[in-house]
Amino acid sequence: MSEPSGVIHDIGYQRYTGPRLGRRHVFGALYLHGLRTAFGFGRSAKAKIFPWLVVGILVVVAAGVTAVRAQAGVIIMTYAQFPDMMSWLVIFFVAVVAPELVSRDLHSGVLPLYFSRPLPRGDYVLAKLAALFTALWLLLGAPQLLMFVGAAFTQDDGMSGVAEELGDVLPGMLYAGLWAVVFGAIGLLIASLTGKRAFAAGGIVAVFLMTTPIVGTLSIMPSRTVNELALIASPPTLVQGVGVWTLGDLLVPPGQGGPRIGDFGPVYAIVLVAVVAGAIALLLARYRKVATS
Q1: What's the rounded Cα separation, in Å, for the pair 249 and 256?
Q2: CA 285 to each of CA 54, 67, 255, 263, 266: distance values in angstroms, whole numbers, following the listed order
Q3: Distances from the Cα of 251 to the Cα of 2, 173, 242, angstroms
Q4: Rounded to 5 degrees, what are φ and ψ at 19?
Q5: Among 4, 24, 153, 243, whose Cα sits 20 to 30 Å from the Cα of 182?
Q6: Cα 63 from Cα 70, distance rounded (Å)
Q7: What's the pLDDT tens digit per position in 267-277?
Q8: C-alpha 104: how far from its chain's center?
Q9: Got the DSSP string for 8-55?
Q10: For 154-184, what is each residue's pLDDT tens digit?
């Protein structure tokens, strides 16, 4: 019987000797990739249709509001009201983008590859959250910036008028950030529960839209306290309640009817912080479980 023999062939593999950039650069690359994914960059033309359709609608609305103000001097919508008026578009944007950010990774089974590198589970979650927060803030903030530029160039009061506009737009931009944080945290949590993007999208729409009738029911209850606390029952109206408390006339100008929250503004703020913190904590716990499953 002949002895087994073999030959080891040198096919050119070499040890990597370049720079090892470490955790911070991995986080940054994951964040940038997530932000590009939100707007369809680096993906097929089909993947760009919906996000840029939403962007186009919001820009057209902002341009229309700006044109009416410039020509007729009528303010149809304040900066702070813009996120409230466009909330339904934001819901569908989150329903499409959040599953792209996390459900696709679950479905394709690439998470073990991510976590085999110096990338803690928490960094993966925070990078995805930061990407979605940024995408949503840009989605709502960029049209407000367009409205500001249009208003600034049509001011008759010079720099004092521009300064006044700046004092109005900055709270509006911060309010857009509040919408981004709440919608992003809840949307990403729901999307992380399944690898099927259709199920994730349906779940996100259901949570945001199907809670709205609860607000309507509570708003017509005979108790005034229940009426003033009704907005807590749904994420979009919860954000609106905090906006009414913090922004006041910037969100609900004098003479316009708006939601009533009474003296419960601090309660709304506490609930909002608890909802966001709870969603992020559940996301972190979810990915600790995914990593070991």
Answers
A1: 9
A2: 32, 48, 47, 35, 28
A3: 88, 12, 11
A4: -70, 140
A5: 24
A6: 10
A7: 999 999 999 99
A8: 18
A9: ----------S----HHHHHHHHHHHHHHHHTTTTS-HHHHHHHHHHH
A10: 776 667 778 888 888 999 999 999 999 999 9
